[in-house]
Amino acid sequence: MLNRLNSLFTTNPETPGKKVLYITANPSSVEGSFSLSVAKEFLDAYHAANPNDDIYHIDLFQSEIPFLDSEIFGAWGKLQSGTAFEQLTASEQAKVGRLGELVDQFLEADKYIFVNPVWNFSYPPVLKAYIDAIFVAGKTFHYTADGPVGLLTEKKAFQIQASGSVLSEGGYAGFEMAHRHLDAALKFLGVPSFEAVYVEGMAAHSDKTQEIKDKAVAKAREAAIHF
After folding, report:
1. How far apart are CA 166 and CA 150, in angstroms?
2. How is domain 4-226 classified at the architecture level of CATH?
3. What's the rounded Cα separation, in Å, for the pair 193 and 216?
4. Is 193 annotated as a binding residue?
5. Based on C-alpha coordinates, what's the Rg of the chain?
6. pLDDT digits over 121-175, tens only?
7. 28 labelled as ligand-binding?
8. Cα–Cα distance measured from residue 195 to residue 157, given in angstroms and rounded to the nearest whole number
9. Residue 63 in marked binding region
């Protein structure tokens, strides 16, 4: 279940709206981060336009996100062979149980906002671990005779991504693996709507840093109204 203690805004419980999961993968502070500071502007504009929606925050760098390892694969194998969850080791139960919590939390939300920097053409490893956690057959997708089919067909997603180089277009676009991977993952899971705002080029054009950020903020606030 989504934890209201992590809710970013106070809403009227008598007029519930959509549930929005705000997923950040950045170890920096809001003040020291282009992606987080632009995302804050997005959230403020979104909340103003959708005051009854609940926005919950999961900071991946401050949360327990198990990386898939031999212990988890071993535990899954035991469960598939008929072993009861209670018969797993304490460590196996903790890891598998946490993965279950993460995917259930993801399923409970109606909309997703991903916020990340680009590190060496992709996003921080903890975001990949989170994506691995939500790829669960029977919950977020299922197999059919014609191949896998995504089950999140009524969800929406948005991304705010920052990079020192311009990666969304131009000569380096082919190196960009963060947005492209997330886009592919969400399409696989059936999410029909995924948009993004890029804050990029601050290192390549250090004399235009504020201009780049201001333009991204304007795009983010406008996009938030329609998200």
Report:
1. 31
2. 3-Layer(aba) Sandwich (3.40)
3. 20
4. no
5. 19
6. 999 999 999 999 999 999 999 999 999 999 999 999 999 999 999 999 999 999 9
7. no
8. 7
9. no
